[in-house]
Amino acid sequence: MLGFIARRLGVMALTMLCLSFIVFFFVNLEPNLTKLATFQTEMRATDAEKESWLQRNGYRDNFLVRYGRWIGLMPKQPVKDVTTGEPVPRFRFCDEPAVATYSGVLQGDLGCSTAFRTTVAKRLPEALAATGILMFWVMIVMVPVSLLIGVLAGMREGSRLDRSLSVASIASTATPEYVSGVIFTALFASWLGVLNGSAATAISKGVSFYNFTLPVMTMAIYGIGYIARMTRASMAEVMTAQYIRTARLKGLSFRQVVVKHALRNALIAPFTVIMLQFPWLLTGVVVVETMFNYKGFGYLLVQAAANNDIDMVLACGIISVALVLLTQLISDIGYAFLNPRIRVS
What we know:
The strands form 2 sheets. Strands 1-2 form a two-stranded antiparallel ribbon. Helix 2 (30-40) packs across helix 3, helix 12 (268-291) packs across helix 13 and helix 13 (297-306) packs antiparallel against helix 14 (310-338). The protein has helices at residues 2-27, 30-40, 47-56, 63-71, 120-155, 160-173, 177-191, 201-204, 209-239, 242-249, 254-266, 268-291, 297-306, 310-338; strands at 79-80, 87-88, 112-113, 118-119.
């Protein structure tokens, strides 16, 4: 197992390196650099002034050189003051040194946020912590409810209960977050007035049922149907297996058959789907956090993309890639514990 984990970690590192190169390439396309120069200068700045700003700040250097600086394999160079010619930091609001230094991702420096006027390392953890709280409560609600629905439907395949739960699962999965969010807001916030339609106070005043329920419901309702359908299909297949029939013939109760024999094998496929929910939640929060004004990772990514904050967008991309790879590693390891017949070679 340790050898398998070591190999997977090596593959993960190589994958992250390749994907970081691709993300860096697309983020640094010419239209993005032009928007960045426009944002950092004046809206009425001439094309020559924008080009001068890009050259002075190193954005016109060789692409591989800029990538090496961002990774931390090459030293970052200071810029020269336009009046004195002395070396000065690129962005004073990030306290960057005025000398050449190795300061990149490998050294823990994710760059400078031009939109929030602070370092990425200071702004990003706050957003990740806020989204982590949201994701935690979404998983707390989504996983038990979806597994319960799937198991109940799979235990009695073809019954009225199965058909009812299947229709409800399909309906929830077919409803995207921006639709369910609007419906929940109109129903519980505007009409009934029992919940807050904005989750902005969840960060400043703390999480409460009043200000945090709507975003959790909006994100959970979509995943519940998907996981429940997968659990139902897996449970229905397991319940027809020969060892289940043998257990029933031995006189075991229906509850013992389900809990001790069927459930563990039926959870293998849903476990993979549950692990895939973590990357999906990072993309799903973009819509939900913007809709409910919750200043987490998704809100931060939208603001960074809108203001062409290159370093912040790159950092968000790396976080997303790392989360996908980590959840897949956990999923593979979990296989061996859920099913003893699976061995890691």
